[in-house]
């Protein structure tokens, strides 16, 4: 079922989400289905459960091709429950981000270039991966939602925040990878 995505300004986006004790409940399976329905409907690259008002530590992401990030390399379609991540060597880089909770906007956001991340998948199995570039960025962005952090709160230069069609009248930018 396609759910309503909360928009920035809603205090429910600012909460610390709860760790899930069980990864095999029918409620969780239904939540993950709703998250994919909602993300695919809006052509998002990722979605966190708090964005549809569910205050639990569940994120999804992944795409083969994404019109909102037209030149991004594919990211494997992934469900992560109780995710964690840590930076690897390589420092941070700035790139343009959007968010389904901040519709129509883009901002230049610093993120770690390379990370190790993991969590539990929808089958209850542990996942652990390394990622870089846009893939690493999506993971950091979605995990931030679980701690009540929206990407504008990560920006260092608010002069690089604006409406996507004004910033990029000739089309959306290539993600820096
Ligand atoms: Ni977001």
Describe this structure in words.
It is a single chain. The chain has a domain at 11-88 and 114-149: Peptide Deformylase, CATH 3.90.45. It is 19% helix and 30% strand. The protein has 3 helices and 8 strands; from the N terminus they run αβββββββαβα. A 5-stranded antiparallel sheet has the order 1-2-3-6-7, sandwiched between helices. Strand 4 and strand 5 form a beta hairpin. It is globular. The mean pLDDT is 95.
List keywords for this structure.
Peptide Deformylase, 177 residues, alpha+beta, 19% helix, 30% strand, 3 helices, 5-stranded antiparallel sheet, single chain, binds nickel (II) ion
List the helices and strands and how they pair.
Elements lengths: L25 H16 L4 E3 L9 E6 L11 E13 L4 E6 L7 E8 L1 E7 L5 E7 H14 L14 E3 H4 L10
Antiparallel strand pairs: 1-2, 2-3, 3-6, 4-5, 5-8, 6-7
- Rg, alpha carbons: 15 Å
Biggest sheet, spatial arrangement of strands: 1-2-3-6-7
Q: Helix share of residues?
A: 10-25%
SS class: alpha+beta
Tally of helical segments = 3
The name of the CATH topology of the domain at 11-88 and 114-149 is: Peptide Deformylase
What CATH architecture of the domain at 11-88 and 114-149 would you give? Alpha-Beta Complex
| Content of β-strand | 25-35%
Q: What is the distance, rounded to the nearest whole angstrom, between the alpha carbons of the first and last residues? A: 33 Å
Mean pLDDT: 95
**Major beta sheet, specifics?**
5 strands, antiparallel
Question: Which CATH class of the domain at 11-88 and 114-149?
Answer: Alpha Beta
**CATH homologous superfamily heading of the domain at 11-88 and 114-149:** Peptide deformylase
Secondary-structure element pattern, one letter each: HEEEEEEEHEH
């Amino acid at each position: 079922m396609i759910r309503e995505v909360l928009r920035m300004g809603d205090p429910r986006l600012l909460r610390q989400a709860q760790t899930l004790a069980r990864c095999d409940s029918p409620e969780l399976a239904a939540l993950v289905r709703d998250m994919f329905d909602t993300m695919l409907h809006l052509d998002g690259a990722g979605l966190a459960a708090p964005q549809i008002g569910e205050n639990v530590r569940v994120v999804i992401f992944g795409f083969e091709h994404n019109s909102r990030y037209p030149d991004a390399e594919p990211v494997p379609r992934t469900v992560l429950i109780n995710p964690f991540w840590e930076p690897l060597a390589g420092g941070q880089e700035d790139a343009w981000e959007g968010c389904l909770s901040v519709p129509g906007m883009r901002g230049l956001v610093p993120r770690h270039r390379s990370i190790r991340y993991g969590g539990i998948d929808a089958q209850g199995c542990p996942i652990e991966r390394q990622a870089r570039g846009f893939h690493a960025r999506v993971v950091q962005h979605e995990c931030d939602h679980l701690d009540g952090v929206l990407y504008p709160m990560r920006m260092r230069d608010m002069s690089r925040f604006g409406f996507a069609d004004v910033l990029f009248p000739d089309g959306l930018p290539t993600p820096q990878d």
